[in-house]
Amino acid sequence: MPICTRYLMLTFVKMLDIGLDRLIDLALRDQLTPVTIWTAVRGGWRYVGALATGDEAPADIVTERMKICLRCPARDESDTYKPTVGAVYCGTGQPIDSQPTCGCLVAIRINGTPYPAGKSLVASESCPRQAWLSVGHRAQPERV
To answer: How many CB atoms within 10 Å of residue 119?
Structure first.
């Protein structure tokens, strides 16, 4: 299935929308640093690049990754400006319990129901705490 450029742009804009809420949340907690901003921008581009190249994990793996992240003591949940939507991140990018976190978006909650998002969808990504591993690059997109 070809990936549409418009879809990629809409996806990136949506990520920026959620990401902006995250940056505001970290600023309010006095945890916003240049490294945090760079991590957010780099992570967003990596996610869009993964979608553009078909680097998507199979649905069963994505669901399992999300469940692992939701049980992780390092997860960091924050509200978004939309009252029924929340975001779940892999910590804040700073170590927790002397183990690393990456600060990446891993799930969203809509009306309390979790859905995989961001890093948990990308086949070639892995958890910085080794809770789940990369499954490799699964597919190449068709050229449009």
So the answer is: 25
Residue 7's φ and ψ, nearest 5 degrees, are: -60, -45
Distance CA 31, CA 24 (A): 10
CA dist., res. 113 & res. 52, Å (int): 27
From first to last of its 144 residues, the chain has per-residue pLDDT tens of 444 455 445 455 555 555 666 666 766 777 666 666 666 667 777 777 887 788 989 999 999 999 999 999 999 998 887 788 888 999 988 899 999 998 888 998 989 999 998 899 899 999 999 999 999 754 444 433
Ranges assigned E (strand) in 26-133: 75-79, 85-90, 105-110, 113-116
**Number of alpha carbons in the 13 Å side-chain half-sphere of residue 4:** 4
The pTM is what? Answer: 0.71
* Distance (Å, whole) CA 72 – CA 24: 23
